[in-house]
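Record pair follows.
FIRST:
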Amino acid sequence: MVLRRLSASITVLFVVSVLVFAATSLAPGDAATARLSQQGGATREQVEALRHTLGLDAPLPQRYLAWLAHAVRGDLGVSYAQGREVSGLIAERAVNSLLLGGVAVAVLIPLALLLGIWSGLRADRRSDRVITASSLTLVSIPEFVTGTLLVLCFATGLGWLPAVSVLSAGESPADRPSVLVLPVLTLVSACLAQNVRLLRAGTVQAASSDAVEAARLSGVPESRVVLRWILPAAIVPSIPLMARYVSYLLGGTLVAESLFGYPGVAAALVDASAARDAPVVLAVALIATCVTVTLNLLADVLSAVFNPVRGSGV
């Protein structure tokens, strides 16, 4: 299964690279025009000279094959807009995005497990109704609205947290943890509701299974029943969804980074798209695809490990 998925992943990466390369190359304008327009404009001869320097006047298939030949060796090229190595540029932003996404994942997973299983074990009670209503409210509010409300409350209103992630030169978000709080809350609120609802449904179904009823009738302590039978059965259906959200968080979160001015990969993607900076756009797209494919493969493996069919006896 793993070998089949790996071969399929290589195909996915190839297709994504072709589509992204074609989209960035066929879009109106190019990197030479965008770069010179930021410098106050230029003559047609200057634009053509820069296009030749960047290799943009070569046929599209030739440019793609040249990029692919370097990419398979780990060379992602040079940014058209900044003249820097793409790998170094992405590495700087990726550290910030991974920090933001990692903190969000560290908050999301235990909180979703706690609320989902707690709600499922107390189905139709007051705490379950409160958690369910809160989940429905969160899932119906767009992410940018949640972020804006958090800014109005905790930044503008109370003044407890910064509204934007402004960092000094050479400063990391880890040096100022306060700039992570509002983006993390925005991300977790957007991802939490669906996971809680799915875990609750899995817990309710598992709690009414024959194996759980037999265990309780046999006098097995409730804590062991939850850990041995209910928890694995509740987790299995939610693993693919959780993997999707984790890949979303670790791959760079456009809305949160744009809303709070966070210097991450998603913000770099927006800037590169506006500048028609194909090497940067390709690098970000491939990295995000790799993260998604890897986490989906891991989700399949974990689903097999936690499959409760492997032991249903008391």
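SECOND:
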Amino acid sequence: MPIALDPGQRAELAEHCLLQPATACDPAWSLPAVDLLDPDSCRALLDRLGPVIGSPNRYITASLLAKRLAFLTTGLALYGMSVLDRGLDLALANWRLDYRHQDGLWRSQMPLLDQRASTPQPGAREAWRASVVQTLFAEGLAPLWQSLHQSARVPLPVLWENTAVRVYSLYEKRLTAERHPARQAQIQADFHWLVAQAPAAVFGASHNPLQRFFRPRQPATARPGTRIRKTCCFYYRATDPETYCGTCPLPHARCKRQTA
């Protein structure tokens, strides 16, 4: 049975994962996440958001929105799971899509309607973990990515790699500085399961997308240890002058051609 977060957990998730009550949303810049499953609502949002973020078309707007939503949803669900042993409900019906953007930066947070959480029973954490992950991906992001794909024609591999890089960053950067050393073994075990063992069904996909994009890091780059993406998110198309993500495959490919 779901239980309430204690004040300390709620504060930690608000600080690190931008959790907020759904009632705190600005109605002018948010909507129920399930609304995006309607093609007309989805296209209307993309058309409104495009000029705000400097995007030239729905395709790029959808990709950049997906990056932000992947950051918010996976950060909250997986931080709660791996650090606090709390399983928050990230199914689409339980959150609002906050899309505030100002002065070139996302200002959106992660508003949940029901902020109660599940907890693992003794000896059953693996089954509980699979359930938390399935709610996040199969019941949350997978249908949302399908809608963005259909409404904006952005390829599903781009949307899933946008998601994967957020998960890698969470576990390889943000959680490596986790201040509870006793949690490190659990954090690493969860990450290994996500990228190497989790079945396709928990992602609502035909394969495990986190495993598909988990490439070795590249030592010979401007930023040694960077994992270069397979796909481009098209962030550079919404910047002036053009600015590339640190993991973008385009400048990396050009550099390889010049040194060949």
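COMMENT: The chain has two domains: 7-214, 216-260.
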